[in-house]
Amino acid sequence: MTAGPTTPRDGTPSAEPPRVDAESSGPASSAPASADAVAATERVAPTVLEQMGGLTGIVASTIPVIVFVVANILLDLRPAVIAALISGVAIAGWRIARKQPLQPAVSGLFGVGIAAFLAYRSGEARAFYLPGLIYSAACGLAFLVSAAVRWPLAGVIWHGINGDGQGWRRDRRLLRAYTWATLLWALVFVARVVVQGLLYRYDAETWLGVARLAMGYPLVGIALLGTVWAVRRAQRAPRPAG
User: Fold this and answer.
1) CB 8 within 8 A of CB 14
2) Cα gap 225→229, rounded to integer Å
3) Sign (positive/negative) of CA torsion 39, 41, 47, 52?
4) Which tens digits make up the pLDDT trace of 56-105?
5) How many CA atoms lie within 13 A of 195 on its CB side?
6) Which of 29, 136, 211, 212 is the most exposed, having the fewest neighbouring CB atoms within 10 Å of its CB?
């Protein structure tokens, strides 16, 4: 038989707190642990910027092009090719030493190697920029086609990288926003092909290098800002009826 609250001789119940069984507090105590586990998982998952080596890694990836442009102006094609290769190897080693993701280091070194090989074999400095031109043309075409078939690559890539799935396509607001963002990315790639393609055709190798740098990450930053603005605006808009 369970004893009730003790009552003093004056008839007033005592303020003794009720005892709580250890078993009844089990779920409550496990909740903070679950929240900590989720938070730890979110911290482990790297962001897109972290996967690219952060802002330092992004800036470092442009160094081989800068080295090639400057060395080709001051020296000659062959020293410029060698200097670009050395800088590419140095940057890859630096990224590995900092324990940054290996994929950007390897792909960056591979891209510099292909560009340097084409320039060396052709004997033309402009050939160093040919892989970038081909890449921009392929990306521009892919982004345009994806927008036309209502699978805008801006949304596919973003949600694919973050592991969110492709359910966003059922939301007409997001589909429209990502379509406009995809067209903005396509404009960036097409602009690169047009401007740099003309410079390539007329063998303006120095200006071609300058255009490559100026139309690289600065335009990517503008496209990213446009994408974020379009998506956030779509998310704040009221959901259409029906």
Assistant:
1) yes
2) 6
3) positive
4) 666 677 788 889 988 988 888 999 999 999 998 988 888 888 777 667 77
5) 16
6) 29
